[in-house]
Design brief:
Blueprint: E1 10-14, E2 19-21, E3 29-35, E4 37-44, E5 47-55, H1 63-68, E6 75-78, E7 82-88, H2 91-100, H3 102-147, H4 170-184, H5 195-199, H6 203-206, H7 219-229, H8 232-241, H9 244-279, H10 285-297, H11 305-330, H12 340-354, H13 356-370, H14 382-388, H15 392-400, H16 404-418, H17 428-454, H18 461-469, H19 479-489, E8 500-502, H20 503-511, H21 526-533, H22 552-570, H23 591-594, H24 598-609, E9 617-624, E10 629-637, E11 641-649, E12 653-656, E13 672-679, H25 683-703, H26 715-725, H27 734-744, H28 750-763, H29 774-783, H30 788-794, H31 798-822, H32 834-842
Parallel strand pairs: 8-11, 11-13
Antiparallel strand pairs: 1-7, 2-6, 3-7, 4-5, 4-6, 9-10, 12-13
Length: 845
């Protein structure tokens, strides 16, 4: 029986286990705990949980419900023998009491503060488990598809996967939609699953955030907490001087507690749903793996034992680990477990015993491959290589002749970093160490590059590996990784038609002044920064720079600090865990799978240009006074420089849309796009994002102030107008507007939104699969036309036919106008200058 609080001002002893106040009942009293401890517990759906305990004297259990004026959202039970006083009160009286009796008010606010802190911990623990379950479900779902690609009859291996909201089985719908998102965001599914894949965070591809933390930035809450943490005499005096502070604090804390309690309910519900999908019923994910094992055991499956059994063993162990964590949080076993886990354990034990010899043989084979057994590693003496690269860090530091004091600090911090379980941990102290190491690393890199260049590009192998790939310390990589790097180092670079450069080749061009230096992260050029440094010297143009300041070394240093270093950081994809030195902790997919060569870039580029043939087009001025052409605007495609930087990650950076910003030839200069040498995802997808950014920035640069002027149609103006006014569009349904609004929340800028739609346009719409809405389709068909053969293919579909006819009419008219205009420039044979002929051809449909 709960306490009878109808008697005023009573002091009641309570035995352990007795209920003081029951959840769902009205709160009608102010309660003060004099001694003992109570336990706060609740039931969320079918799940019971102990939220926290309140121990000690001068606490006010249940104050939240009284001040909010709602029934108790929890049950309060005596944990030990307690003594409690109750005072009959309603919400209004309670608020008055807080300000009229400051000591009681402080007691209530301190209790709320303690409860919020404890509730926050509980929410955090459930959120953490929920995040682990979600990541496990998503990864296992992807692996289930890799093992059984026929589960979706309309999807052929290697083809695009589209979302399908009509699938009845919720687990299969989750797998399908996850895979669609995975592809859209550049994820590459491995040919066969691995434990490494299962343990990695693929949230960026699945459109998921597996964060185990919750956002909580209540400034007022933290301000009052600081006041309460000072000397009680000081805080008491402050509240007595202004009792309204107590009321304000109490109201803020009640609001915060309610938000946390609702978040607790949501996280518990989400966790329960995921666990049901994992374990409960015939559609559970584990049941699907049980079925896979049954098919394998009966010979109907062709999956090798060495592929399937390690996966199911991982699923078994991971499930048990998560269930144990659930028990620790909730104090009891998961009630709806069913028998799917027991079945999996039984099948796993039987098949592991039956195929133990195959599993052992596979392990031995993998160890042999690690010692060098594939074409890339052929001819490499692993033992001799290990001797040659022994103490690589010392070799590189000695070669660079870096500052001894900086080297000493660098070496100390490297030792400390290598002692961490994961050197890439985003924890603040770890980040600080990495930043300090990175500063010295880039100084060493610059000095090593200069010496290497001056020595005819000859240096110890460790130095060459650093300059090309960001290698530094052999102990930070596995032997197989090192052999892979060395095998790739001396491979032919290919002969691409596009301007694609290894990072070292690019820096050499900068050093020799073959190309101008890049801008920094603030958009400043080498000349602008030098002009600021020498502001009293009267420099007005680049010609005025003293030769002592404009040297190859100065330009090289500027390029490394302004462009090279930032892009190594940004292409890594995760600033919080960035480290410029390549380690095994960076390598989330096999190194040979993510290595990017010049030919790989060329293939990805040609794939995009085969669809979006105007990707790098711009209007430039053509002059030919010999035949009377003073100024003619013509279309020209100018492919940017692609630079492979020593980095690993899932990001390609569009750094500059032009390399010359003022004067003659600026609009005809190449842009600059930086690609990590190791791309942890689909190169084509990331290239699409970078080229979308290039298109956007080039359009802004060319148009200047008119880039968003809808009176001058352009891709930036029309798309910006769409983003601003899509909610008022008559061409979009209310449901579609809501979907667009939800999608847009994922992106920071209009350029990001454009890049996402651009990727869908090239990957899906070019195949006739409608993935953008009709407003975006109209904008893109006008400004980003498909190649002629694709236009002819999609024009037969109703969604494109009207757009195609409009495009065709406009282009035909433009072609006719240019044809008539250019007649006066033809020679006696009826031929046009090459530039005008190409421009005329551009407008042909």
């Amino acid at each position: 029986m709960p306490l009878d609080t109808s008697k005023n001002n009573q002091k009641i002893p309570v035995n352990p286990g007795e209920v003081l106040f029951i959840g769902g009942k009205a709160s009608t009293s102010m309660n003060i705990l004099h001694e003992g401890s109570v336990r706060v517990e609740t039931t969320l759906g079918d799940t019971s949980i102990v939220l926290y305990s309140l121990d000690g004297a001068n606490l006010t259990p249940g104050i939240f419900a009284l001040l909010e004026g709602t029934p108790y959202p929890y049950t309060i039970r005596a944990k030990t023998t307690c003594v409690v006083s109750t005072y009959v009160m309603n919400q209004a009286n309670a608020k008055k009491t807080l300000t009229s009796k400051v000591s009681v008010g402080v007691m209530a606010v301190r209790t709320l503060l303690k409860e919020i802190g404890e509730l926050y911990k509980r929410v955090l623990s459930i959120k953490g488990l929920s995040a682990k379950f979600e990541q496990t479900m998503d990864n296992l779902g992807a692996v289930y598809y890799i093992l059984n690609p026929s589960i979706f009859s309309d999807v052929t291996p290697g083809s695009l996967i589209t979302r399908d909201e009509n699938i009845i089985d919720p687990v299969m719908k989750l797998i399908r939609n996850n895979l669609a998102g995975y592809q859209e965001h550049g994820g590459i599914l491995p040919d066969k699953p691995s434990i490494t894949f299962l343990e990695e965070d693929h949230g960026e591809f699945f459109e998921k955030d597996y964060s185990e933390s919750i956002e909580w930035n209540d400034a007022e809450f933290h301000f009052i907490r600081k006041i309460l943490s000072v000397n009680p005499k000081i805080s008491q005096a402050l509240f007595e001087a202004d009792p309204s502070l107590l009321q304000s604090a109490a109201e803020s804390y009640v609001k915060t507690y309610r938000e946390l309690f609702e978040l607790l309910s949501k996280e518990t519900y989400d966790l329960s749903e995921m666990m049901g999908s994992m374990f409960a019923g015939e559609n559970a994910l584990l049941e699907k793996f049980n079925l896979t094992l049954d098919l394998f055991n009966t010979g109907y499956s062709t999956i090798p034992s060495t592929t399937l059994l390690p996966i199911t063993e991982w699923a078994l162990k991971k499930s048990k680990s998560l269930l144990e964590e659930y028990k620790q949080i909730f104090g009891t076993n998961y009630a709806s477990l069913g028998n799917s886990l027991d079945k999996l354990e039984s099948k796993q034990a039987e098949l592991t015993s039956k195929y133990g010899h195959e599993l052992s043989a596979q392990k031995n084979k993998e160890e042999a491959i690690a010692q060098g057994g594939d074409p890339i590693r052929a001819g490499i003496d692993t033992k001799a290589l290990k001797v040659e690269l022994l103490n690589s860090a010392s070799q590189i530091l000695n070669y660079s002749q870096a500052d001894p004091e900086a080297v000493k600090e660098f070496s100390t911090l490297m030792v400390k970093l290598k002692s961490f379980k994961n050197p890439l941990d985003p924890e603040p102290d770890n980040r600080k160490i990495r930043r300090t190491i990175a500063k010295t690393y880039w100084d060493v890199y610059k000095k090593s590059f200069t010496k290497w260049l001056q020595a005819g590009k000859q240096a110890p192998k460790a130095v060459e590996l650093m300059l090309r790939y960001g290698y530094f310390d052999e102990t930070l990589l596995d032997d197989g990784h090192i052999v892979e790097l060395v095998g790739r180092l001396y491979q032919p670079g290919g002969n691409p038609s596009a301007p694609i450069h290894h990072g070292t080749d690019w820096l050499e061009k900068i050093y020799s002044r073959e190309v101008p230096t890049s801008v920094d992260e603030l958009g400043q050029t080498f000349f602008e920064k030098l002009k600021m440094d020498l502001k009293d010297s009267g420099i007005k143009s680049e010609k005025d720079i003293p030769p002592d300041y404009d040297t190859g070394e100065a330009r090289l240093g500027s390029e490394i600090s302004s462009m090279y270093e930032p892009n190594v950081r940004l292409t890594s994809g995760n600033i919080a865990s960035h480290f410029p030195i390549l380690t095994k902790y960076h390598i989330t997919i096999p190194l040979e799978k993510c290595f990017v060569s010049k030919d790989d870039v060329e293939k990805a580029l040609q794939y995009i240009l085969s669809i979006d043939y105007t990707a790098f087009n711009r209007e430039v001025i053509y002059r030919n006074e010999e035949i009377g052409i003073k100024n003619e605007f013509i279309q020209r495609s100018i492919i940017p420089d692609f630079i492979l930087v020593p980095s690993i990650g899932p990001k390609i950076m569009m750094w500059q849309d032009l390399s010359i910003f003022r004067g003659a030839g600026s609009k005809e200069s190449r842009g600059r796009i930086c690609i990590p040498h190791f791309v942890t995802g689909d190169l084509k997808t990331f290239m699409l994002e970078a080229i979308a950014a290039f298109r956007w920035e080039l359009c802004k640069n060319i148009l200047g102030p008119d880039w968003n002027n809808v009176g001058i149609p352009s891709i930036t103006a029309d798309y910006t107008d769409y983003v601003q006014f899509y909610k008022k569009s008559k061409d979009l349904s209310p449901e579609l507007k809501e979907k667009i609004s939800s999608e847009f929340k994922r992106f920071r800028t209009d350029r990001d939104k454009f890049a996402y739609d651009y990727s869908l346009w090239i990957r899906y719409e070019a195949e006739g699969v409608q993935r953008v809405n009709r407003v975006v389709r109209s904008i893109f068909y006008r400004h980003i036309p498909f190649h002629k053969n694709i236009r002819e293919k999609v024009s037969t579909q109703p969604a494109y036919s009207e757009l195609h006819n409009r495009f065709k009419n406009i282009r035909t008219r433009q072609h006719k106008e240019f044809e008539n205009k250019y007649k006066k420039y033809m020679d006696a044979s009826g031929n046009l200058p090459k530039e005008l002929y190409e421009n005329l051809t551009f407008y042909e449909v």
